Amino acid sequence: MEKHKKLTLDPDDWEASRALAHRMVDEAVDHLKQVRERPVWSSMPDNVHATFQSGLPDHPSPLEQVYDEYQATVRAYPMGNIHPRFWGWYMGASNFTGALGDFLAAVEGSNLGGGNTGAAQVEQQVVDWLKEIAGFPKNASGTLTSSGSMANLVAHTVIRNFTAGYDVRQDGIAALDKPLRFYASDQVHSCHQKALETLGLGAKALVEIVSDDRQRMQLDALEDAIRQDRANGLQPACVIGTAGTTNTGAIDDLTAIADLCEREGLWFHVDGCIGGVLRLAPEHAHLVAGIERAGSVSIDPHKWLHTPFDAGAVLIKDPKAHFKTFEMHGPYLQLQERGMIAGKFLADYGLDLSRCFRALKIWMAFKEQGAAKFGRLIAQDISFARYMAEQVAAHPLLELVAPVDLNIVCFRHLTAGEDATKVLNTEIMLRIQERGLAMPSDTTVQGKHGLRCAFNNHRTQSEDIDLFLRDVLQIAEEILSEQTA
Ligand SMILES: *Cc1c(COP(=O)(O)O)cnc(C)c1O
């Protein structure tokens, strides 16, 4: 019998792999350096699409060839959120140090479920830094998650178990004698409903409170809803304050909600996926006054900290409530005082057992840049939004459809008739996207449909905004002239 070489995934030729890896890094740097010269986005042609239909590879290929295929079919068709004129939805713009962090984390290879490792220390330190940012005490608990949605799910699980008043883990929600109610403004992010559905509480458990003309929760309506629900035999459990709504960047009155929660004995949760890091910018920190009084806060480093996807986080002020919700150990994974498994077991604070080392990319970027730099970038984004809002307000054909209180501008190009305006603005958005000029998204605010630019991009310059507005006006003219032709 022929003697086989021992199987491994390590390369046959380390020096060839080293050379290829160097090429990848060189080309990654070029890719980033030249981002401004490329279209923001381009649609994938059918022939490229077809390459993704092939089945499980049955032959090996040289890595160089795989990399070339990646460049041609994947890297050539990105979302575009690293481009300076990407302002759609709410993305971060990533950063190169974070990308290196992801690479190093994967090479180091640790599983962040727990363990006596440097990696676990890094995650706990990053969570400690997020506590400092949110104004939480050092003894608060917290964990990194895959996303803001997961961060909110973790928080709501803790809140459900804590407020139910019995052992939900043992007896399940079937034993709830009074249905729990969570209150938030009608601008609340959809992930909260998803979380409450997942937790078996039902979409009904999320009570949406009407917002005012600045899209902030109306607190007298909140008080009425709580009173009424109590009278109807329901159990108010939690008020969710949003620190920066996804739609328009509105910030609820967190101090007043904190007061109300104290008075009413309710859990105060802050969705800080956008504004949870605002205290890094001293001149804007007052906008989130009261966040430090919350029982829990969700934060999304992959948004305003530009951590490469993905990275979310949740802070829970009561470490016991957090631990008691998720702690669980099979016979194959018992904690020890010494050895590799000693120390805080990170999987006891969330749903995942195996966890990636997403802390490193945050840790490296904070150390390299310093925290204050992130605050200045936040302030810069807010100033871009104000700059654009001024241009829009000053132009006779453009109209703001929501007040600009943070870094999001919602506006539209005017034309006769509400339906025609919606059609026009949607077409403007699609042409701008398809031509790769910029990446706005769209939304509806109080019945007015328009374009939406969320400035959350450390590569944007004010010239990009001038260029974009010129494109909007020019394309609108083009569409309107097609209609009359
Ligand atoms: C983005 C966002 C979320 C969800 O976060 P993901 O990381 O996208 O899952 C939740 N709440 C608010 C306010 C957000 O802006």
Name a few traits of the molecule.
binds pyridoxal-5'-phosphate; 485 residues; 12% strand; 15 helices; 4-stranded antiparallel beta sheet; 42% helix; 11 strands
Number of DSSP strands?
11
Quaternary organisation of the protein chains: single chain
Extract low-pLDDT stretches: none
Spatial strand sequence of the major β-sheet: 1-7-6-5-4-2-3
Shape call: globular
CATH superfamily of the largest domain: Type I PLP-dependent aspartate aminotransferase-like (Major domain)
Encode the helix/strand succession as letters: HHHHHEHHEHEHEHEEEHHHEEHEEH
Which class best fits the helix and strand makeup? alpha/beta
CATH architecture of the largest domain: 3-Layer(aba) Sandwich
CATH level 1 name of the largest domain: Alpha Beta
The distinct ligands, each listed once, are: pyridoxal-5'-phosphate
Q: How many structural domains in the coordinates? A: 2
Strand content: 5-15%
In words, what does this structure look like?
It is a single chain. This protein has 485 residues and is of the alpha/beta class. It folds into two domains: 101-369, 3-Layer(aba) Sandwich (Aspartate Aminotransferase, domain 2); 372-484, Aspartate Aminotransferase, domain 1, CATH 3.90.1150.170. The protein contains 15 helices and eleven strands. The strands form two sheets. Strands 1-7-6-5-4-2-3 form a seven-stranded mixed β-sheet, with helices on both faces. Helix 6 (148-164) packs across helix 8, helix 6 (148-164) packs across helix 11 (319-326) and helix 13 packs parallel to helix 15 (462-484). The longest helix is centred in the last third of the chain and has 24 residues, at 371-394. The radius of gyration is 25 Å and the shape is globular. The N and C termini lie far apart (80 Å). The relative contact order is 0.14. Bound molecules: pyridoxal-5'-phosphate.
